[in-house]
Amino acid sequence: MSKIGFIGLGIMGSPMAGHLAAAGHTVTGFDLSEPALAKLVESGGQRAANVAEAVAGAEVVITMLPQDEHVLAVTTDVIAAGGDGLLLIDMSTIRPETSVAVTESAARKGIRVLDAPVSGGEAGAKQASLSIMVGGSDADFAEALPLFEVLGKTIVHVGPTGAGQVVKAANQLVVGGIYALVSEAIVLLEAAGVDARAGLDVLAGGLAANRILDLKRESMIARNFQPGFRIDLHHKDMGIVLAAARQADVSLPMAALVAQLVAAARAMGHGSLDHSALLKVVETLSGR
Ligand code: NAD
């Protein structure tokens, strides 16, 4: 059993830290939010007063934070407080080059780093069925694997530092594209006077089948956009996708389109709604 410091106990981090505690690990967590800390204690963890306290005595530190700036700030404190041999696993979705920069500064103190972003959403975190895409060394991946197995079902070592974040960018591109297309399908069906529920039930059984249709068609038709995964975070992720495309010198026209639809959702004031609220943008474009 490991001593784990867990920083970032939000929609994803809270159930993940709870699973690790339930599996018998000693989990000491820190978050800026008081309710998040109280929830950790309820699920068998211990609360820390700051990052340094969560890192003290830990063999592994896991971070699950919103964006690059939070990861940079928190990992600076983790590196300052941590010692030789510590394994830092960042499971947030951030730019690949930020993962590389964190790994390089951690290495100067003998701290090893894995980038291990996840897919599967809040449901995947709660059900411990996440897909986890991991960048880093073979040895560090092997050491972290038993912890990943507590949190997820599909766990793949995809390459060196930063590779996990590139795979996550590809994931977010596909997820955003599917949300946009399911939204267009709903608008088309409703505008043509066809029952959207019946229509999407058929789609979910044919070649158009996908997990978003399975999990979200009911809530989208009901216009329930409670997050889940916020538009603001998907906006951040589409920025990562476009930057990665530029870095790799490739042209991804669909990525640009999805990024603009997500930007529109944000500009319309839907940033804190679930990313399925792309439907509101598609409706507005059709005057509905
Ligand atoms: P969230 O906003 O619900 O949680 C983030 C938590 O980090 C919050 O509780 C916040 O208080 C805490 N935090 C921020 N700055 C901090 C600091 N300096 N010190 C301590 N705590 C701090 O976000 P989330 O939905 O859990 O997402 C976390 C990461 O996982 C993001 O990078 C996101 O893109 C990614 N992700 C989210 C989902 C999803 O469905 N929500 C799915 C896959 C990946």
From TrEMBL:
Pfam family, one: NAD_binding_11
Active site (record annotation): K168
PROSITE patterns, A to Z: 3_HYDROXYISOBUT_DH
Protein name, as recorded: 2-hydroxy-3-oxopropionate reductase
Transmembrane segments: none
Keyword tRNA processing: no
Segments forming domain 6-phosphogluconate dehydrogenase NADP-binding: 3-159
A GO molecular function held by the record: NADP binding
Transmembrane keyword on record: no
GO BP term, example: organic acid catabolic process
InterPro entries: 3-OH-isobutyrate_DH-rel_CS (IPR002204), 6-PGluconate_DH-like_C_sf (IPR008927), 6PGD_dom2 (IPR013328), 6PGDH_NADP-bd (IPR006115), HIBADH-like_NADP-bd (IPR029154), HIBADH-related (IPR015815), NAD(P)-bd_dom_sf (IPR036291)
The entry's keywords: NAD, Oxidoreductase
Sequence similarity: Belongs to the HIBADH-related family.
Chain ranges of the 3-hydroxyisobutyrate dehydrogenase-like NAD-binding domain: 162-281
